[in-house]
Prior knowledge:
single chain, mainly alpha
Amino acid sequence: MEYFRKMKGTTQSPPAVSLSVILWSWLGAFLGIAAVAFINYNLFKETDLVMIIGSFGASAVLIYGAIRSPLAQPRNLIGGHIISALIGVATYKLLHNQMWLASAVAVATSIAIMHATRTLHPPGGATALIAVIGSPKIHALGYLYAVIPVGLGALIMLAVAVLINNIPDSRQYPEYWI
Length: 178
């Protein structure tokens, strides 16, 4: 019974945020994703490179909307994505004949290694999964996937986060770098 009681929760819903927080979060997310998407759809259009991946949407929530979270800090953003990308590519290369197993191993191993390296960034799990279940274009990148789109895209979003999140006096980002 104690097991089921834990599922009830122990706290109340989080408080509402101000309109200012909502607007700055929106602006940061818009500019960060716009920068990465612009490169993807304009500069890389005729190449085999990809610049934007789904997990960047989740990163945007953290680095523009939850800027004080330890999971949103630069170390976590960059480290979590790159580590997870490398794990995802390696897992795909080793287990591509068993996609169900490759998917589970990539995500679970990414979480474990992010914990061990103090770079836990939840979108990293999606980055690892994308390396496994992604398109042939993603698979063709091999380990370059960890550099472009993952590393470079995360760096661009980080630069936007540092610039935008420090404009209002009420916001400061990052809390720490390393």
